[in-house]
Amino acid sequence: MFRALRVLLASLLLSGSALSAAPVELVPADFTGAIQPQVAISPDGLIHVVFGQGAAVFYTRSTDGRLFTPPTKVGTLEKLALGMRRGPRVTATNGLVLITALSHADGNIHAWTSPDGARWQEQPALNTVAQSAREGLQALAGDGQGRVALTWLDLRRGQMSLWGRFSKDGGLTWADDCLIYASPDGPICQCCAPSAAFAPDGRMGFLWRNSLAGARDLYLCETKDGLKFSEPRKLGQGTWILNACPMDGGALAYDQAGGSLPVWKRIRTVYSSENIATERKVADTAAQPVAAFLGKTPLILWESNGALMLQRGVATPQVYAPGGQYAAIASHRDHAAVVFEGPSRGRKTIFCDILR
Q1: Bridge partner list, 340
Q2: Is residue 265 within 8 Å of 222, Cβ to Cβ?
Q3: Going by CATH, does the domain composed of 31-355 fall within 2.120.10.10?
């Protein structure tokens, strides 16, 4: 009887039931040093995860978010950029996976493509000015149908600015790299990771921490074609006067109607906004927010007091993962995949969870 009940519960979980289960470890117990995971879901529902370990970039995938393939080494980079939102990025169509990663040694953006997650082809550096991406901070987004947007912090002008590059075939070929934003006051914030996201209508949004008149506030701009960009708009009503880099770049998501949901940290508080100019306080004593939509419901995760927190819509925030940090999230139809760093059996490892 008890065995039958266990089988029934397992089958419900694997069939997509609303029953919840504990997050699962992505990597084998003897696989140590895995950090900075990122996740994408292709239109066919495959969950693609990439992470770093030392100098190596690794990839794994799953059909259900519970069982993952053994990690495959994609490539090795001298001084692979890892930590504080640095690390490899991933996006995917039904027939092509694209991974990007940066090297502090050569200062370039490296990219690999694969039709099956097993055979990887490395491309030429995506930043056309050598060593210009040496800060190691980037963002990658795709619409699942082949359009890809890549953005990164770039030093080719001598001061930090935001650059981008775009593809229409999943990352096999690329348009020329282009300037997205340069601050009239000098550099943009030098150590905060940018964000990129696609809206349902094809708009591509970019989020970065600016540096204007002594303020380190988040700004957003959009483009339809990767050629013309909207006027940058500051997020929220407040401002943060700071002569330093908070190393926290926020995140950007779009709902089914194309409305933007940026989330960001200012001083010790995390905010979100539904119309750019206004703001809603999400949590105090908080950092490193990320966001996605589950249908029409926004999901926001952030770090606070040694735990990863979760808020669904405007519900009361809940402790999601004690010891969790550096979450990434991707949504697909009726579920979202969350990956994050966390402790297990005395070591740090990577977890995945499915939210419904």
Answers
A1: 351
A2: no
A3: yes
How many whole angstroms separate alpha carbon 349 and alpha carbon 85?
Answer: 16
- Decide the pairing of beta strands 280-284 and 109-114: unpaired
- Residue 83 contacts by C-beta under 8 Å, 6 or more apart in sequence? 35, 36
How far is CA 259 from each of CA 34, 236, 293, 344, 355, rounded to the nearest angstrom?
A: 34, 15, 11, 38, 21
Does residue 203 sit in helix, strand or coil? coil
User: Is the C-alpha dihedral spanning 219, 223, 226, 227 positive or negative?
Assistant: negative
DSSP state of 71: P
DSSP label of 231 = P
Four-residue CA torsion sign, 256, 290, 210, 216: positive
Taking the CB of residue 233, how many other CB atoms lie within 10 A of it? 14
202-259: pLDDT as tens digits: 999 999 999 999 999 999 999 999 999 999 999 999 999 999 999 999 999 999 999 9
Q: What separation, in Å, do the N-terminal and C-terminal C-alpha atoms of the chain show?
A: 29
Q: Report the C-alpha gap between 298 and 315 in whole angstroms.
A: 10
**What are 309-343's pLDDT values in tens digits?**
999 999 999 999 999 999 999 999 999 999 999 99
304 C-beta neighbours (distance < 10 Å), count: 17
Q: How many CA atoms lie within 13 A of 178 on its CB side?
A: 14
Neighbours of 151 (CB within 10 A): 26
**Residues 270, 287 contacting (CB under 8 angstroms):** yes
Which of 149, 138, 207 minimizes the C-alpha distance to 174? 149
Distance from chain centroid for Cα 342: 17
Domain extent listing, the chain: 31-355
Please state, in angstroms and as integers, the Cα–Cα distance from residue 27 to each residue in 7, 67, 80, 187, 264, following that order: 24, 10, 20, 39, 30
